[in-house]
Design a protein that fits this description.
alpha+beta, 27% helix
Length: 181
Amino acid sequence: MKPEKSLTGKNIPIPKIYMDVDVVISAAKLKTHRLAGSTLSLKNAFGVPPRELVNNYPGQLMKIKLHEWGLEQSIVDLNLIRRPDFVVIDGIIGMEGNGPDLGIPIDSKVVFASSDPVAADCIGTQYMGIDLDEVPHLGLAAENKLGVAELNNITVVGVELEAVKMDFKRPDTGPSAKVAS
């Protein structure tokens, strides 16, 4: 499937049930990511394409193809195909450093939820102490009308973000950071 205003120009295999259900809720973990900066609800869509052989791409190879077509563009395309109706980001135990698989657990004690995945990801990213410009897919998602990325236009209910904000360790940027997840 390819969204009308595709950024990759590629067809991405999407399960029929994902398109047919009434509501999609994205349940993501709060963590840093070697290539994307942070991996929250928008990046969580990488789990939507089937892992079995589809269009001659085995599941893991499909993820590699998404990276090759442009990480930020693929994230946006997946969310343009079907934007989650509601997102929950579980940061009770987050991950810092070389996420999504080689990071270090961190006791962050937070949960974010929103009907706007871009806003939720922006607040989660800020909570981790990561500047939004370090996560290019957030601005690209906002430009493509997937949600709000302007912090001044996002209302946070609950605690004051600045009062609980953490400073997560960033991923390494050496050769091992080039491994696709």
